[in-house]
Amino acid sequence: MVHVTTKIERPAKELVEELGTFSAATIHEAQGRSGALDSGIKPIDRDMSFCGTAFTVVCHPRDNIMLQVAISYAQPGDVLIVSSGDQPAGQFGDVLANACVARGITALVTDGGVRDSREIRDLGFPVFSKHVCIQGTVKESLGPINQPLVFGGQLIYPGDVIKGDCDGVVLTRREEVRAAIDACRERDAAEAEYIERYKRGETPIQVSNLAAVLEAKGLTVDV
Length: 223
Fold this sequence. Notes:
Structural class: alpha/beta
Largest sheet: 8 strands, mixed
CATH topology: Glucose Oxidase, domain 1
Number of domains: 1
CATH class: Alpha Beta
Helix content: 25-40%
Number of helices: 8
Strand content: 15-25%
Order of helices and strands: HHEEHEEHEHEEEEEHHH
Radius of gyration: 20 Å
CATH architecture: 3-Layer(bba) Sandwich
């Protein structure tokens, strides 16, 4: 028997939305270069982006019965994190994408495969996957929902915040969202200042204070 856990802790919606205003790369850097998922997990359309709370599910390879269960219990604002063993099969397509949209689900991220990618793009539902594959699936094997999950090289807890864009996917612990937002603001402000200094004619060596570092490493320049 498999028990489905549906009640999870989620950060305040306002915090999730605010974190979502920053890029995945900025969040990753601002929280100490942590949380980046496997770079092989990519959006099926580079214009897709999202930010929401993790709703985890484990599917057996080439089997999507638990994905259908997860869609049935996920809440508006959730991101489906679908672990399926890095197997190229079309576990998710346009029909289930429409189900997700109808239920207010924010996005789907999987290390498996999806199909009907054109229809999903037209629908505008954010999908990030390791594979795109036409191969069909069965509905046979049960698996856990909303349990801590090693996925894409990271340990994800239900309710963690997941941000995805054209550069990749990153997670932020649900209890660290406010700190991540503050760190992202500081980083964006610093980078804006760097850009202004470049516009004033300074070089990367000057802006990044690299002269002493380069000299210590033995770099010489014939100027």
